[in-house]
Amino acid sequence: MTIISKANKGTSIFILLLNLYYIPMTLKIIIARGGTWGFGLLVLPIFLTFNLCLISAYHGFRGKNSESFGLLMFNLIASVVGAYILYEIEFKLYFE
């Protein structure tokens, strides 16, 4: 197992862990139809885009795709952006 494969699996696990937050929040927004005035629908495309990153995280665990440097870069960018959005939504806005 090479370093790229290990890093790919690590970022894939991080994307899976971040989606433990994003999937329930996506379902809440869809069920609530965006909230009272519908402003939750503005965040929905961001959450759905990050939910689609589960596909690349799945491919990060597969045999020959786990060696791909391009997939590693995509997963790394997706995990950093997902963590930043989670930080902005949950921690920074909550404590200000």
List keywords for this structure.
96 residues, elongated, mainly alpha, 0% strand
Task: Characterise the protein shown here.
By secondary structure, the chain is an all-alpha fold. The chain contains 3 helices and no strands. The protein has helices at residues 3-31, 44-61, 69-95. Helix 1 packs antiparallel against helix 2 (44-61) and helix 1 (3-31) crosses helix 3 (69-95). The radius of gyration is 15 Å and the shape is elongated. The chain starts with a helix and ends with a helix. The model has no long low-confidence stretch (mean pLDDT 87).
Distance between the termini: 45 Å
**Alpha-beta content class:** mainly alpha
Strand content: under 5%
- The best one-word shape is elongated
- As residue ranges, the low-confidence spans are none
Please tell me how large the radius of gyration is: 15 Å
Give the biggest sheet.
none
Overall average residue pLDDT: 87
Query: Would you count the extended β strands for me?
Result: 0
Given the structure, what is the number of helices? 3
Considering DSSP H and I runs of 4 or more, what fraction of the residues is helical? over 70%
State the order of secondary-structure elements, H for helix, E for strand: HHH
